[in-house]
Amino acid sequence: MNSLQLDGAGLGLRREHMLPLMAGVPSPIDFFEISPENYLDLGGKRAQDFRWFTERYPVVAHGLSLSIGGPDPLDEDFLLRIKGFMAEHKIRLYTEHLSYCANQGHLYDLLPIPFTEEAVHYVAARIRRTQDILEQPIAIENASYYAASPISDMDELSFIRAVIEEADCWLHLDVNNIYVNSVNHGYDPEQFLLGLPGERIVYGHVAGHDLDGPDLIIDSHGHAVIDPVWRLLEIAYEQFGVFPTLLERDCNIPPLAELVSEVNQIVSIQNQSLIQTLRKSAYRSTSCTHPQSLKPIKPSCLHS
Ligand SMILES: [Fe+2]
User: What's the whole-model pTM score?
Assistant: First the structure.
């Protein structure tokens, strides 16, 4: 368990599922995530229900509207409200998308920042200011996008790396977004993943999406996670070690049991990866030379 109290597998908290979850949170779920914009001004029964979760489970605030890469001045009043909200509910982590969503008014979409040196300095300064106001590091999520900016003068991977380095922030790794962008923009998702700064990952996302054509994916979070995305998560664990990972589902919401089975899939991949890691280290530290001579390890022992 790290200082953020994030561990294992999580689920994006939906109002539709609050009551069944309050009747008993299924064991694969270790933490929840919310968009603070949806909970900042909550009162009455809804506020009470939300508090039920924050008093019992780690909750991450995953923001939607800060517009960290946007042209408008950083909304510091909003950040002060976020800070108070996090303190009130003992929420230890705030993350945002590496994108923008406002330009003299809300655009109701997450749009890509031009991948330029100038934008690196601009966004990194805004992340640093955000961290100063919140008095803690934040994490930035690699975002999906559909149209690349014509003024970009560097590739997406170099841009993400440069922003995180200059801002000295964490990476909120979304493997589905890598897959979506790899199809929409024609690159190798595995190569992209392996180029990210793994030591900065604080937690991860998996999600499903809509296939709108052979080379167009819409990042809807409206379907089950597909096998190539699960495989990317496996590769991420192999390369960077197991990190806390959360299932996002934002539309076409199924019954809770369906989502729990996907969260269980996260746990299963985490356990497999931990077993492989233990096996490798056992080979290195003992004289045994055959895989079958190693005793099996109970997955339940590994889910810490
Ligand atoms: Fe995400």
Answer: 0.90
Ligand 1 center from residue 141 Cα (angstroms): 7
Maximum CA extent, the chain: 66
* 289 pLDDT above the threshold of 90: no
Decide if domain 9-302 falls under CATH 3.20.20.150.
yes
What residues flank ion ligand 1 with Cβ within 5 A?
174, 205
pLDDT in tens, 125-163: 999 999 999 999 999 999 999 888 889 999 999 999 999
The tokens 């780690």 sit on which residue? 58
Q: What's the gap in Å between 286 CA and the centre of ligand 1?
A: 41
Compute how many other C-beta atoms are within 10 angstroms of the C-beta atom of residue 273.
20
DSSP calls for 212-236? EETTEEE----SPPPHHHHHHHHHH
- Residue 87 CA to ligand 1 center (angstroms) comes to 24
Question: What distance in angstroms lies between residue 205's CA and the mean position of ligand 1's atoms?
Answer: 5
Pairing of strands 93-97, 59-62: parallel
Domain ranges (residues) in the chain = 9-302
Distance separating alpha carbons of residues 164 and 123, to the nearest angstrom: 10
Q: How far is the CA of 61 from the centre of ligand 1 (A)?
A: 12
